[in-house]
Amino acid sequence: MFSNFVNQFWPATVDGLSLGAIYALVALGYTMVYGVLRLINFAHSEIFMIGTVAALFTVTKIGVSAPLAGFSLLGMLVLLAVVSAVVSGGAAVVLEYVAYRPLRRRGASRLAALISAIGASLFLQQLFALTVIPRLFDRPQEGGRLPVQSPNWVERSDAISIGDFVVRNDKLLIVIAAVLMMLGLDQFVRRTKLGRGIRATAQDPETAVLMGVNIDRIVTATFAIGGAMAGVAAALYLMRFESTNYFVGFLLGIKAFTAAVLGGIGNLRGALVGGFLLGLIELYGSVLFGSEWRDVVAFSVLVLVLMFRPSGILGESLQRARA
Amino acid sequence: MSSKVGNPVGRAVDRTRDLWAEAPRWARWVVYLVLIVGAVLLPSRAIGSIMTPDSDWPTVLFYPIGVYILLAIGLNVVVGQAGLLDLGYVAFFAVGGYMMAVLGTRWGWSFWEILVLGTMAAALSGVLLGAPTLRLRGDYLAIVTLGFGEIVRKVAENTDYIGGPRGIAGIPHPPNLSRFEIFGVRPLRYGVLDPRPYYYLLLVLIVLVIVFAKRLENSRVGRSWAAIREDEDAAELMGVPTFRFKLAAFAIGASIGGATGVVWAGKVISIIPNNFPFILSATILAAVVLGGSGNIPGVMFGAFLIAWLPERFRGLQDYRVLSFGAVLVLMMILRPEGILPSRRRRAELAEGGGGSGHLGAEGAAPAASPDPGTAVATR
Q: What interface predicted TM-score (ipTM) does this complex get?
């Protein structure tokens, strides 16, 4: 078991980081919405799913004749990321407008908002399984639940190769893209006016309103940004796994939320740390105990971490400290 | 929400509640008796043809309706009374189900022994989950319980002794108590064909659990839960041992879930890990919140609706889940406090969210409320 771990160490690390990068990007959406609204946006996993469908649709429509490499691969990836970021961001804004805003207006409890989120999540899953996926990809009605494959558009090669340490180009791209997006978002929240508004609302909504922050705009922006990040993650996911289905967001969404909690929910850098950590834990765990125990290891580590650091590894810094 | 209810439904509910509060003891017993007789007559064909024309009504009455109702009452202890958000409640249902399956097939225990043991095992698993995690607050607890639910399912899937992903088949039915027959039903003979005896078994359990939960609610334990739900810090300062009572809530909720699992597994013959998905936890939680968390009749009504509506509209086939999701969103928008909230819960929700709190940026939104009653500060 242990020698196996030594042999598999580098591949598991690379895979863990690239998986963790996707978790981290999706976790951003959870963490931002949680920071501003204190809401577990359960339907965020469906926002991710919508992103993968948008990216898949785009790459199918463009029609790639041969696998892409080098700059054409990069260009395609950027295009897909932009498309799915716009679609996912838009979907997230619509979701907020339909499923959460009316509840906020009525001062509903967070429990009610959670149920509304679960309802929206079910609705979106079924909507895609029953109508959207069959229509977009010319499938019969009952085919909407099956995975849809994308054309083979990524030429996979080893980008780095030093002895045992081999990194494939798509995994490297995922990690770089995720870190760049995180850095960009971090600076955005720290330096721009809108970012200041988001931080102010997260800290204290009432005072923020008194200081002239338009909360509705902030909430819309938060959902748009979180959705866009999930969209980018979706494009990266599609590059790596080349297939999607209506249910793809569910487990990934739960994992991403776990990552957000692991790092400290409401904390943007925490999402990055939590995402990478969770990815690594999962891959190391599956090397050590077998891949069927992967989810069990991931959740057990979450419980362990929370026992010793009850508000995550980095704590809840975006918002006020809560009891 | 201001505490005065404006809409006609709410007013009717309030009037009924006042009437109930002033009713003499004998009148209440008459109502109880009518309800129980009604529940006993419920599986009749005439009612079934209206309620579920597309499927067998007594079967539906057992599962999902009866099972959901019992699970919802159990989850209500945790969510509605103690104010702890549990997203992995199905795990306890699974513990009960697997106890029945393993002890029944491998060890040859009888149903009644397993019912007791399974309930205790579920309570123990509630304590095991709660002891390390109940110091966490709110949403951290939610994600940990969700993780626990997934862990239980995955462990069942990966353990060969309990059948792995193929589960366990050939679970014995409860032994027959008597061949006594009344109006063509043998209510104490647990066979394969007739679901009604199982429904009656569940009914007895539901009545017992309601009595138990109701007594708890009015006891020292129930008052402590209310205090914890409303303000945990204040409760702790007033000398309520909050951790111990939260643990008790977890254990009691878990044991109800476990008992339900045993009874359910005693009927279905075979179980697989995928019988216990996260979505079932979410559905039961939806039932609790939809019905009005904290209020047992409300919770039961919510569970009934959530179990019955998809069965009633089987004709819609694939669109059932789609409409279910849409209905959840719509109901929460129209009546966020649930259909029949308890008065106390409603007051708590109006002023501070009662254990679960408000959405962060709500009360402060400038256009949030034309009604001054709702514009109060949230904390």
A: 0.87
